[in-house]
Amino acid sequence: MNTDSRTAIVTGSAQGIGKAIAERLIADGNEVVLLDIADHVRQTAHEIKAAGSLQVDIRDLESLRAAVHGVGHEHGRLDILVNCAGTCGRESFEELSPATWNRDIETNLTATAFACQAAVFPYMRAQGRGRLVNVASVSGKVGGIGPVDPDGGGGRSGAAYAAAKAGTINLTRWIARQVGTWGITCNTVAPGPIASPMAAGADYGVGSLPIPRLGEPREVAGAVSYLVSSDADYTTGACIHVDGGSVLA
Ligand SMILES: NC(=O)c1ccc[n+]([C@@H]2O[C@H](COP(=O)([O-])OP(=O)(O)OC[C@H]3O[C@@H](n4cnc5c(N)ncnc54)[C@H](O)[C@@H]3O)[C@@H](O)[C@H]2O)c1
Fold first, then answer.
1. Which residues line ligand 1 (CB under 6 A)?
2. What is the pLDDT, as a whole number, of residue 5?
3. I need a labelling partner for 87 at 20 to 30 A (CA). Which of 112, 146, 174, 200 fits?
4. CATH number of 7-248
5. Residue 200 Cα, ligand 1 centroid: separation in angstroms?
6. Domain boundaries, the chain
């Protein structure tokens, strides 16, 4: 256990990386509430012994704000917010649609901004302490991961996703600069190819990476655990790659 018992929300935690983050934060001794659009969020919460679950579409910003404030109200505090929910279109540039663009920007970037806002005001600012962790992607560093099809086909993480995750990394820096004097840190974890439902069936060309395999969700969770611990009290605006060296390739 490397943290005192605190109240945390993890979005996108019905499965995959978000579920692993929630499990790790629970193992660290925190009270964790799962938040996800999926029906099975409740079952996941039961399975991993979470403090609660909320079925919310984070693209509905009013519902998102109400959910975050509801957790703060019920627990009397809100210490940790991990924004992990995401969607990843894989259309080619030619076939990229406004619907995919809007979905991936709203889910990955817009909701992250407003969830952080709802956590800071009023709870984290009033407490004089808080931890915000946003899950981006190395797609936001290198313009999408996976081999490029020379004929223009899709398959690798798409344009909207790459743009949203780059935005998440700089949004995190902007928030970090604002909230530091309030005792709040804001950091990004940028995974590379991780074995999860989102990655199923995608070709990431992992054989050419410095660490030539897919990562595990628990390896992303370890970075989040560090960033919300007191060991990271002086770390803000950072972006930790958990990517097998993807950005070096
Ligand atoms: N798997 C990878 O290779 C990889 C790589 C880099 C970054 N990431 C990022 O990690 C995060 C977790 O991804 P994952 O691999 O676990 O994917 P996943 O698809 O398994 O999980 C994503 C979760 O987000 C939830 N979600 C999607 N839209 C939502 C909405 N509108 N409201 C609420 N919840 C919503 C889904 O229901 C799901 O439970 C995402 O932000 C993703 O972009 C994943």
1. 12, 14-18, 36-38, 56-59, 84-88, 107, 135, 137, 191, 193-194, 196-199
2. 75
3. 174
4. 3.40.50.720
5. 12
6. 7-248
